[in-house]
Amino acid sequence: MKSFLLSFFLAFSFLAKGQNLYIKTYGNKKDKTIIFIHGGPSGNATLFEGTTAQKLADQGFYVIAYDRRGEGRSTDSNATFTYEEAFQDLNSIYATYHLKRAIILGHSFGGLVATLYTNKYPQNVSALVLAGALFSQQETYDHILNTLKRKYNNDSEQLRKISIVENLNKNSAEYRKGCYELAGENGFFKMPKPTAESKRLYADYEAGEFFKTNIRNKNAPLLFYQNEKQNNIDTRLVLKKIKTAGVPIYGIYGKEDGIFSSSQIKSIKDIAGENHFAFLDNCSHYLFVDQQNEFLANIKKWIK
């Protein structure tokens, strides 16, 4: 426990504007750098760190995991929860670790941060990897609600719950929260047939030290939707612009990730390209755990 606490303490770096970010690195700094951007708002990198970060480093990468300002272990009561603030923190990471360029790996909501950052600072990004990443928010919300309406077409109580969410302001944190709560209650984020390996990874994580620091800031989504004007966006045109600018884009998604429709998956595959896209069987939203070996193999094939 003492060694973990020491490691935890050393993982903090003093960054711009006097803010402390939780940051931890894995692997050899002489290798290609991958910066992992977690989901949220209100997320953290603990699941990625507790299951995958070191294994990705073992493939020959220098992996940097961090929690965004005000989220997870990067506690900050003054955080504004805007994309621009997230960009400032990423640029601080580049400065702290003397990075000229890095591979950006964005998961879930982190994919939006990764995409918008790459669009603003393409010179800093050698490749953009979207892993179960959001890219068309309203289509995702519509898909969740429409799927549930079909599922519960004869269940008046469930349809009433869906209708309440559907009639909320679509640019509100309450709407987003309602959609994802319904998705979670209905297993949209779980792989249908957990493998022995995925069960072990999840169990080890839940029994380990990273799970104990799985801190969630319940106010983060509310503040994000209050402070950030870009709060229900479609980044596909931005991704096309990034690709045209010469930054390679890769996409890796789970076939059983319930928050994406087949048309959404086709559209992101078309942008990334056939050889830059992987669609994993028996895999849901947390693909770096659900099908870890395939996840690692694809990253290595594309980037190494």
UniProtKB/TrEMBL annotation:
Domain of life: Bacteria
The keyword Signal is assigned to this record: yes
Signal peptide: 1-18
Keywords: Hydrolase, Signal
Pfam families tied to this protein: Abhydrolase_1
SUPFAM superfamilies: alpha/beta-Hydrolases
GO cellular component, one term: membrane
UniProt entry tagged with the keyword 4Fe-4S: no
Gene3D superfamilies, A to Z: alpha/beta hydrolase
AB hydrolase-1 domain: residues covered: 33-290
GO molecular function terms listed in the Swiss-Prot or TrEMBL record: peptidase activity
UniProt-listed GO biological process terms: proteolysis
Family indicated by similarity: Belongs to the peptidase S33 family.
Cited PANTHER family: HYDROLASE, PUTATIVE (AFU_ORTHOLOGUE AFUA_2G14860)-RELATED, MONOACYLGLYCEROL LIPASE
Stated name of the protein: Proline iminopeptidase
Organism lineage string: Bacteria, Pseudomonadati, Bacteroidota, Flavobacteriia, Flavobacteriales
